[in-house]
Amino acid sequence: MSGMGTEQRAPGREAERMRGGPVFVPVADVYETKDANIVVLELPGVDPEQLAVTVEKRVLTISGRSRSVVPEGYSLTHAEYRDGEYERSFTLSESIDSQSIEAELKDGLLKLKLPKSRPAPAATIKVKAGS
After folding, report:
1. Mean pLDDT, the chain, as a whole number?
2. Under a CB-based contact definition with an 8 Å cutoff, are residues 25 and 88 in contact?
3. Confidence (pTM)
4. Which of 113, 108, 114, 116 is nearest to 41 (CA)?
5. C-alpha angle with apex 61: 45 to 108, nearest 5 degrees?
6. 123 is a domain residue
7. Does residue 16 carry a pLDDT above 60?
8. Is 37 inside a domain boundary?
9. What's the CATH code of the domain at 55?
10. Domain that includes residue 94, residue range
11. Strand pairing class (28-32; 36-42)
12. CA distance 28 to 26
C-alpha cells in the first residue's frame, strides 16, 4: 500500500469526543493500481451534503454525519445503525497528488481515488563556465 500511511485511529472503534453523540471510525479497504490508490469507506446513512473530504499537511480526513431516514408509510421496528458522526484520517505520502483526489459517494460507500504523482522528467543541467 504505497502512498498511504497508517490510520490515526484504530479501525472499527468509536473515538471518544467532546461532543454530543457517538463518533464512529468507518471501516476502509485500500487498493493500489499502477496510477492510484483507491480507498473505499463504509458510511451508511451519510448524505453527500453532510460529508467532508479534506487534505491538510498531507493528512486526508473524511468526516460526515449520518441520520436515519424512515420511508414514508413505514415505522422502524428494529435498528442496528446508529445516528452519529464518522471520522477517519490517513497520512498521505509525498507520492500522492493531493490536488487531483476524486470522491464519489454511492449507496453508503465512499470511493476515493488518490492519483500518484508523476515523477519529474529527467533533465540535463547546462553548466556555465565561471569567470
Report:
1. 85
2. yes
3. 0.73
4. 108
5. 20
6. no
7. no
8. yes
9. 2.60.40.790
10. 4-70+80-115
11. antiparallel
12. 6
| All residues at 6 or more sequence positions from 2 whose CB lies less than 8 Å from its CB, including other chains | 32, 37, 93, 95
Predicted local confidence at residue 60, as pLDDT: 96
C-alpha dihedral, 90 to 91 to 93 to 94, nearest 10°: 120
- Based on the structure, what is the number of domains in the chain? 1
C-alpha cell at 80: 442496528
> What pLDDT does 71 receive?
84
The verdict on residue 120 lying in a domain is no
Residue 56 has pLDDT above 60, yes or no: yes
Per-residue model confidence as pLDDT tens digits over 74-127: 988 888 878 899 999 999 988 999 999 999 999 999 999 999 998 778 888 889
In a domain, 126, yes or no: no
Q: Map residue 98 onto helix, strand or coil.
A: helix
* Helix/strand/coil percent split, the chain, to 5: 0, 45, 50
Cβ neighbours for 20, distance < 8 A, ≥ 6 positions apart? none
The three three-digit cell numbers of residue 26, written as one number: 468507518
